[in-house]
């Protein structure tokens, strides 16, 4: 059959029945659900067809999802699955078999479109009706927070920063979770106050569901706020999980936009008893920091490291000056030493150490982790953040190096979602990566957080916290000691050992699914380095990418850049993800700040890899590399963010920084040139130039580009309108990609990757068929049955016994009894063979029931 034909008018499903057969509909309430532990598949979202239409110069472009459970095999040009009838204004205009997009050259701005999946000769569901966008993008209206003024009198405004997505109401469509950053947002190394961070949740039409004000005790910046949006408990609705503090509150709105309620999170009982309140403000003024130093010096004689004899007994010894004071210090003596430290010692170490101006940081006060209900913002649970900061960074090495940076290494946070047991999503939160390194994994069951495991390198030993070199040293924990100095400004999850469970790739080290250390990668320093021949960590870096980069090698690979300069064995390297062993790489002798992977040279097998190019790149012989290490070109594409935009499955790059010169973001192809100029929008995070999000949020398998408008009054979603003849399931139904999308917002945003090789030369026979469980699927089938009853396609008396079977199946799912649930659904399918069920309803309901059975078994 031709991929696209113009057939005769069809006999479609009756309207009420058809609408119900979209396999969506709200999932059961959160209170009624807990993840079914017995379901033998990974939990992913139940998504609708995701049909979108966009006006182009050539007609109306339509794009929609192939859902993972619909894949039945492969062809030479894609995956096999249902065909699709395309409807314009109620009339069938085409049948599409080779893809999930279509260009209607006769469409008008007033046309209305639907698509129906077809199995055999029967339509088995019908999408929602959509109208065309006026162009290749859609604006989601946003409500910008009010401007503010810091305690220092500095004015600030707000702009959209990172965005994540989740289905917060169980309707099969994504909502958009927007982080608002103030204009005075800071890196952890930058001095000054910031405005508070806000996290909003919006429907696609711009309806603001709620706003969470993190309050003054959470500093704004890429390293501070890592927010996870995911269905953690398997109720079919996404929750949100992130770090909070006293002063964090949830704001809910009425339909007219006015505030309906404001409610602070629940502080733990012990904190309330200790006198902490939501009115507390822990931000340090310059004078407050000085008093903090005085207090630190007053307690010097009691510090555990001093008592143990591991640190100098006196501050004079630490500063290398003659002893002149008696310990415990008096208040006057502590101030004299504080003056010396701030005015003499610190500037003597580096002229950049202006501690008299140190302000705006938060070095004490409670820290929490809170779970919020995604649809309402309601607080579900708040617990103490693990681990706490302990101090202002003294034990983390923040005072040890020439550049004294209190509250720096201690406040480096990361977060991700991971399928540690291969089925249920866990939330993983990390603190630290230069010195002490910690990760903790939690499972949320709808009622409480349960710790899966905790990994902690232990403190890095220092002989003098005011003059030492703590990077690259082992921690004190016997198992996790070598985690130190290996983390990146992001992290990844992937099933690196092919056991069906995801591991945490923490830069140069990887934790197994049970939290044990799988490996920490070391290599010898080469000639010309700081210590040739010494075996050292591959070390910290800014960018990290994990997927099947080289399809000719078994398993996955890691591509990472490293900033250790002459102390790092590689500036960039490709490693085996299972073992951590280096496949190839180059020593650069300098901070190699960024790097990227992608299929930018489609004539070469595998994904290409490339680092950001240092000035001496030609001398070093680096540039664009093939997956097996061949130098392909001395020049490279950009490194800000990649995107799957083109019809041929090659990789494109999103360019455009947001520094003092605000560049318009673009989508560029290494061979074809510019494919999109996103006029009227801006990227985020300065030189990083990150979009708000790059993800497959609707339409076919390609990724959408989400950017803030220049005035941040809207979130603009750009859609690729190139017609493709490649049929692929939505990337959101690959567990590594879906977890990566949840992770993308963390720290220095990195692209999302599937857990298999996906490029222009993909071997479709090797693309894994999705095997997952979508919570709420049985509820959606009940909704479909009810719709067919209302339309007259199922008689009421037949519906009673059919409904009873679905109720039984749903109960078995909730109890984790997959086999019994599947048995009830098989009986449901058998009961459809009767005179009380129309042929169209029988085909559609049986197809959906069979789809659920496949998920369960």
Q: DSSP strand (E) fraction?
A: 25-35%
How confident overall, as mean pLDDT? 94
Main sheet makeup: 6 strands, antiparallel
Number of strands: 51
By DSSP (H or I, 4+ residues per run), the number of helices equals: 12
Cα gyration radius (Å): 28 Å
Spatial strand sequence of the major β-sheet: 15-16-17-18-21-22
Low-confidence stretches: 1-12, 23-35
Helix amount, in percent?
10-25%
SS-based class: alpha+beta
Shape: globular
Alpha carbon gap, first and last residue? 32 Å
Essential attributes:
6-stranded antiparallel β-sheet, disordered N terminus
Could you write a compact summary of the structure shown?
By secondary structure, the protein is α+β, with helices and mostly antiparallel strands. It has 12 helices and 51 strands.
